[in-house]
Amino acid sequence: MKQAFLVFLGGGLGSVLRYLISKPLNPLFQNFFLGTFIVNMIGCLLIGFVLGLTTKGNLLSSNGALFLATGFCGGFTTFSAFAFEKHHLLRNGELLNFALYMLSSIGVGILAVVLGLWLAKLIS
């Protein structure tokens, strides 16, 4: 039950932070959801960092990893919003914006995970 509470608490915090970041940033560009993009990239960086720390042994407890990776990152990152926004671009015929956003989100997201893993290595 403790683990479920940690996921619940982390997810709630992540969701609120996602809202606070996305709400002011998403309207800045007509066909690029900047807030969602930033949240997803920060989430990729954080999950890489957290999972990197958990592989180092005692640097992060299993409960800490559960709270941060499953809870916080799960509530913070916005893949469902990401998918909906891509549908919006396709529906409006914004094929170039769709392709650029997809490629940049996936490419930068992977790089952010790698950077998080690398940063975790620096701590040990």
From TrEMBL:
Activation and inhibition: Na(+) is not transported, but it plays an essential structural role and its presence is essential for fluoride channel function.
One Gene Ontology term of the molecular function aspect: metal ion binding
Cellular component GO terms held in the UniProt record: plasma membrane
UniProt catalytic activity: fluoride(in) = fluoride(out)
Membrane topology (UniProt): Multi-pass membrane protein
Gene Ontology terms: biological process: cellular detoxification of fluoride
Keywords: Cell inner membrane, Cell membrane, Ion channel, Ion transport, Membrane, Metal-binding, Sodium, Transmembrane, Transmembrane helix, Transport
Annotated localization: Cell membrane
Membrane-spanning residues: 28-53, 65-84, 96-120
InterPro entries linked to this entry: FluC
Family statement: Belongs to the fluoride channel Fluc/FEX (TC 1.A.43) family.
Name the UniProt record assigns to this protein: Fluoride-specific ion channel FluC
